[in-house]
Design a protein that fits this description.
With 153 residues, this protein is α+β, with helices and mostly antiparallel strands. It has a single domain, classed as Nuclear Transport Factor 2, Chain: A. 21% of the residues lie in helices and 26% in strands. It is built from four helices and nine strands. The strands form four sheets. It has a three-stranded antiparallel beta sheet with strand order 7-8-9. It has a two-stranded antiparallel ribbon with strand order 1-6. It is globular. The N and C termini lie far apart (43 Å).
């Protein structure tokens, strides 16, 4: 596996907005030597979408992708486009697809060989999902998360 070093980000379980924060320890940034920070950015950043997919004129994306030479339609996740939908089987399938798409760059870079997301309704207005990543050495990792769902359409 490629050596990876990044500032460690985390998703605070009490933060209902899904914003990431920087982990600090011993008066300095904590360094992440895994793909966890990259995973969080991939899943929780708004991928740029076409004007037809835009939500109230907002197309998502990050202003720096073009400066960095990254196609803004390949970075981040389109999950933000479905937050207003009713939580049902169709929404779960889109969530799974958009989550898997967010990891495609890791497959393209040879960091993982496969990714699978399984989402399910876990109560009133709550969804839980599991992401399983398979690495070139055939080992795998699973992460589980849940989302408080507010969509009604």
């Amino acid at each position: 596996m490629t050596d990876f070093r990044d500032i460690q980000l985390f998703l605070d379980e009490f933060n209902t907005q899904g914003w990431l924060d920087i982990r600090v320890g011993d008066n300095d940034f904590v360094i992440d030597e895994s793909l966890i920070t990259s995973d969080l950015i991939s899943e929780h950043s708004d991928r740029r979408v076409s004007k037809n997919e835009a939500q109230q004129g907002y197309q998502g994306g990050w202003w720096a992708t073009e400066i960095m030479g990254i196609d803004p339609k390949t970075w981040g996740s389109k999950r933000w486009t479905i937050y207003s939908r009713r939580l049902d089987k169709n929404t779960l399938r889109l969530w799974e697809q958009y989550t898997e798409d967010a990891y495609k760059w890791q497959i393209d870079e040879g960091l993982i060989t496969e990714v699978a997301c399984v989402a399910e309704i876990a109560g009133v207005n709550r969804m839980k999902y599991t992401v399983t990543k398979t690495y070139p050495d055939r080992s795998s990792s699973k992460t589980q998360s849940s989302v408080l769902w507010e969509g009604t359409r």
